[in-house]
Amino acid sequence: MNSFALGYLAAGIGAGMSVIGVGLGIGRLAAAALEGSARQPTAAADIRTSMIIAAALIEGATLFAIVVCLLLAINKA
Question: Exposed, middle or buried by CB within 10 Å (0-12, 13-18, 19+), for 2?
Answer without folding.
Answer: exposed
